[in-house]
Prior knowledge:
75% of the residues lie in helices and 0% in strands. By secondary structure, it is mostly helical. The chain is elongated and about 75 Å long.
Amino acid sequence: MDPSYVAAMIDAFQQARVVNYAHVSALAIMIYDIFTTLDLEMTHIWAARWSPPKVLYLIARYYALFHLSLVLAVDVTLGVNLNLTLYANHSERTLALTSIRCNGFFRINGFGLQLLADIADALLIMRLRCMYNNSKRVTLVLGALFVIQAIIQAVVIGFSTSNSGAVEPPPGLSAQWPGCFYTSLPPRYDIVAWLTSLLFAIILFAMTLHKLWQFRCGGMKAGGLFVIFAQDGVMFFATIFVLELLNTVVTWVVTISDGRLLGIGVPWTVACYGIVSSRLVLNVREYGAEMQQLSLPSRSKTTAESQHIREAV
């Protein structure tokens, strides 16, 4: 075997190990967050009636867990191409099936992150719609921007994953070959997907701050619900901005020799979307439950806030 090929293969495995460490840490944080909020989830999600926010919550929460678990399982499994076929002894069919399975895995890995990002954006749009008094213009503008950025990301991810192939294991090493490796770096236009998502997050955050500024300029004090909206908005924007900026920079500067490190920030982004999306729902519903307990002394105020809470989540 060519020594240069062996050196490149060893380097790729070392990079894959670093990315797997990121996956393990992100998965651990995700599991920890699920257990620490399980009591709130049982009270405010599972016991509640079915609604769009509840569905979005469950998808974001448990698809993120599934996604991280799947990617990590594939990345650390040896001979994954031999475990799923009855024709492992036929090299031609094995290689063909390996390519099909890895290409499918690449698509899941790409579109799964977009699914989580779209869910978080949809939950934030519901909140902004509430903050802007159910303005039809705001709803239409945000809905249009949401669809546009989602389409752009889907097209970029679709082309990127369609043009990506899987590395075929060298003869005799199929059973010891871990996971799926790209034959080449994803195209540079992948950065468009990250920038589009980043720009939309900035717009949502700016609209949240604008509404709070309107309250202040009007001499009004933002109610408790809007304070929750603002706090969650800052939490969401700060974490997502840092992670998506990291992914954007990595996509731009990474070289072919460091190709596997291209995904170093993705596990944390997946975990962040799963955690933040759940908090966007849980925090508001927990606040609503507290307001219901105080409804007798100030029924009119809490009734109005309860209406906002139902509209938001």
